[in-house]
Amino acid sequence: MPKPKMLAPPAPHDVPMDSRELVKQELARKLQHLLVQREMNQSDLARAAKLPRELISTYIRGRSLPTPVSLQRIAKALGFKSGEELLPTLRAMQSENEQHPSLDMKAIHGRPNQVWLRINQAVPLTVAAQIMQILTENANREAAD
Predict the structure, then answer these.
(1) Tens-digit pLDDT profile for residues 83-99
(2) I need a labelling partner for 37 at 20 to 30 A (CA). Which of 21, 43, 106, 109 fits?
(3) Annotated domain spans of the chain
């Protein structure tokens, strides 16, 4: 009997990626290249940047993006003047995210009339305060019921 064929995972170019994923991959490749170029390992970079080695590992594996403070520390540890000099596309990605806000709603198991709501959009402080007021009033109504 012939062996069943295993389906191959999709090739990386077949998987659609958003700009955040692309920037993570760009940073990962750049950090790997810079470490080899400077004959450093992850622990060396972590010590120089005063960050946990596990955190450096997540950046090098392309699992997450550093905070602005962490990016600045990594950049300085690698001899760059700024985080933006190390990763200029991060600013472009942040700008793109501001132009294309995201909204995410997920159903809550066992609560058919409720959803988790996540909004990522720049708004004026007054609008944010109004949204928080609505959410607080809603929570107070639910607690009273």
Answers:
(1) 888 888 766 555 555 55
(2) 21
(3) 18-98, 101-144
Q: What are the angstrom distances between the C-alpha of 102 and each of 1, 63, 119?
A: 51, 20, 6
Lowest mean pLDDT among 13-17, 40-44, 54-58, 94-98: 13-17
The span from the CA of 63 to the CA of 141, in Å, is: 40
The pLDDT of 68-85, averaged and rounded, is: 92
Exposed (0-12), middle (13-18) or buried (19+): which is 31, by Cβ within 10 Å?
buried
Residues 59 and 129: their CA atoms lie apart, in Å, by: 34
Spell 106-120 as b/e; 16+ CB within 10 A means b.
eeeeeeeeeeeeeee
pTM above 0.90, yes or no: no
Domain 18-98 has CATH 1.10.260.40: yes
DSSP conformational letter for 100: S
